[in-house]
Amino acid sequence: AATADNTEQMFGAASLEDDAGESIGVPYDVVIDVDGDGQLGPGDLIDGRQGVGFWLFKDLTALGPVPVTRVETYTASFPGIPASRNQQRLTYPSDIASRNDVPLVVISHGNGQDYRWYDYMHDHFASHGWAVMSHQNNTGPGIETASDTTLRHTDFFLGNLNSIAGGALAGRIDRTRTVWIGHSRGGEGVARAYDRIFIGNYVPENYELDDILVVSSIAPTDFGTRARPGDANFHFIYGSSDGDVRGSVAGGSKPFAIYERGTGIKQVTYI
Question: Across-strand partners of 57?
Fold first, then answer.
């Protein structure tokens, strides 16, 4: 336990560089040079030798440094996407012509929501160097159709980069860093979409299961046991004042069950 005679106050943390550019933080190691020789040797202590000791993050609520370009709406024509749910919206770094490893975020809205309501997320991710696509989601019938539109809209997007936005993204997207974000029924749907690929229920044409780097569910619904994020890197975010979607404790939705079914690296953000 720390006592007054073995505790030191360390000042000047603000002098550490936290400008990560498009990234979210700067990694550091912590070294205690016990013998004072300026070298890492026996008896010295280090946190971070085999990895990062700590990160100094920038203000994650602020936009990144990259100007962005938006394509308001265009049609996704792919087998299984209903004509009533075939619109996509796209935002990407304006200097994408100089990039070749741009990660992709796919946003799947919830029931009664709209794919055009996520421009703030579009701008945030794109200003940090990501491409962002939100799509119409077929949530009305349930999460099976919601998962289906996530799967197929992702397939269309990655398979048509030569024509979307005039081909601006062709050869620029790193499909191995694809993130699915879903809200409400869409949040349940993205977890189900991951599971459907895992069990072989859906076989993508233009991507693979390992290309889905993160699955993130925002206040998802859960009315059954089919939404399983499995071994995905899974992020679950929920609000303490977010009630059941049916407006009563007897509504039957158990959203935290989706998190419990996850078997990979997972995190809850509870607000």
Answer: 25
Name every residue whose Cβ is closer than 8 Å to that of residue 4 and which is 6 or more positions away in sequence.
none
Q: Are 236 and 266 spatial neighbours (Cβ–Cβ below 8 Å)?
A: yes
Angle at 24 between CA 181 and CA 30, to 5 degrees: 130
For the full predicted model, state whether its pTM sits above 0.85.
Answer: yes
Answer yes or no: are the C-beta atoms of 64 and 19 closer than 8 Å: no
Q: What is the pLDDT of residue 19?
A: 80
Residue 29 confidence (pLDDT): 87
CB atoms < 10 A from the CB of 55, how many? 13
| H or E stretch at 104 | strand 102-108
**Of how many residues is the chain composed?**
271
Pairwise CA distance, residues 18 & 20, whole Å: 6
Tokens of 91: 């935002």
C-alpha 26, offset from chain centre: 20
At 129-143, the pLDDT tens digits run: 999 999 999 999 999
Mean pLDDT of 228-249: 83
Average pLDDT, integer, range 182-193: 96
